[in-house]
Design a protein that fits this description.
The structure is a single chain. With 307 residues, the chain is mostly helical. The chain has one domain (2-23, 32-306): Na+/H+ antiporter like fold. The chain has twelve helices and no strands. InterPro entries: Mem_transp_PIN-like, Na+/solute_symporter_sf. It comes from Brevundimonas goettingensis.
């Protein structure tokens, strides 16, 4: 148990390093966006494609974990939608609340899984990502198109184009296609992808830390605390319980549990800026969920270890 929790600690040390680098101006602000672009477009696809390509889809673990993640997201999305009439918040603010409850940070999730469960856990995590990213992106874009500041809506074809422009989603689709077609690993190609992928996890953590902003947390603490409660107190046991219900083994349960405990996604902030959401509120949600996640993940691993 202690080695498992100790293995997770470097994840949050690297996040803190990224935050410190940004705050200290060690790297100019203008450098962070190109680093993030490199990571999202090349490093993360380099990790995801071979991970999904070589994942065992025949076992019950992958299907149960992926099904639990998708089902939990849909349940929480319906609950957040049903609660909207009772929220004293404008449309753009609601879009950030919605994104905050269902989107999660794969930059943090994957290194945590690697530290806690190793390569077998990473394979399951990759399958979960391939299943959940299309669902969360479609739901969040639809909500922003309806309640964002512009409220211009989005045609179905434009929505599909926006989805396919996401390099993470595209990498998941490529990995799934190669897996389902039973294409064997290609010498040279697979090694190149894995080499790129080896840089994805530490780079992603530093980027996640650099993007944190706590300016809004104190000003809108009730809203942000409420979103954080749903995201990190309700979602982890919900995903865990659904995974058990769907017949997932112990490893699949642990991966599903940690998926639920991942903090808010930095991509949600970018989407809020692009589509008229409340970007400052989104930044505050991401920051607070990151801090709480650092406390919740060791606690959940302790509980998981006892089961």
């Amino acid at each position: 148990m202690i080695p498992m929790v100790a293995g997770v600690m470097p994840v949050f040390v690297l996040i803190a390093l990224g935050y410190g680098l940004r705050k200290s101006d060690f790297l100019p602000d203008a450098t962070w966006r190109p680093i993030e672009k490199l990571s999202i477009n090349f490093m993360y696809p380099g990790f995801l494609i071979p991970s999904i390509w070589g994942a065992d889809m025949s076992g019950g673990g992958a299907g149960a974990a992926a099904g639990a993640a998708v089902a939990a997201v849909i349940i929480v999305a319906i609950g957040t939608f049903a609660a909207k009439p009772f929220m004293k918040i404008d449309g753009p603010g609601y879009t950030s609340v919605f994104q905050g409850t269902i989107r999660w940070n794969s930059f943090v999730f994957l290194p945590v899984i690697q530290a806690a469960f190793g390569e077998k856990g990473l394979a399951l995590a990759a399958v979960m990502i391939a299943s959940i990213i299309p669902v969360t992106n479609i739901l969040c874009v639809a909500v922003l198109a309806r309640w964002g500041a512009d409220q211009r809506g989005m045609r179905p074809l434009a929505l599909i184009r926006a989805m396919l422009a996401n390099p993470i989603l595209l990498a998941c689709l490529i990995g799934l296609a190669l897996n389902f077609a039973r294409v064997p690993f290609i010498p040279g190609v697979t090694e190149t992808l894995k080499l790129l992928g080896s840089a994805a996890l530490p780079t992603g953590l530093i980027i996640a830390g650099a993007g944190l902003s706590f300016a809004e947390v104190a000003r809108r603490r009730v809203t942000i605390a409420g979103v954080s409660f749903v995201k990190l107190i309700i979602m982890p046991p919900l995903m865990w319980g659904l995974c058990i219900l769907f017949g997932g083994d112990h490893l699949a349960q642990g991966v599903a549990m940690l998926c639920g405990a991942a903090p808010g996604a930095a991509a949600a902030y970018l989407l809020a800026r692009q589509m008229g959401g409340d970007a400052p509120l989104m930044a505050g949600i991401i920051a607070l969920t990151m801090v709480i996640s650092a406390l919740m993940i060791p606690l959940l691993l302790f509980i998981y270890h006892l089961t």
